[in-house]
Amino acid sequence: MFELIGIPPQALFGQLLLGLINGAFYALLSLGLALIFGLLNIINFSHGAQYMMGAFVAWLLLRYAELPYWGALILAPLVVGALGVVIERLMLRRLYELDHLYGLLLTFGLALVIEGGFRHIYGISGQPYAIPPSLQGGTNLGFMFLPTYRAWVVVASLALCLGTWAVIEKTRLGAYLRAATENPTLVRAFGINVPVMITLTYGGGVALAGLAGVMAAPIYSVNPVMGSNLIIIVFAVVVIGGMGSILGSVITGYGLGLVEGLTKVFWPEASSTVIFVIMAVVLLIKPAGLFGRA
Question: What is the span of the domain harbouring residue 196?
Answer without folding.
Answer: 9-95+146-285
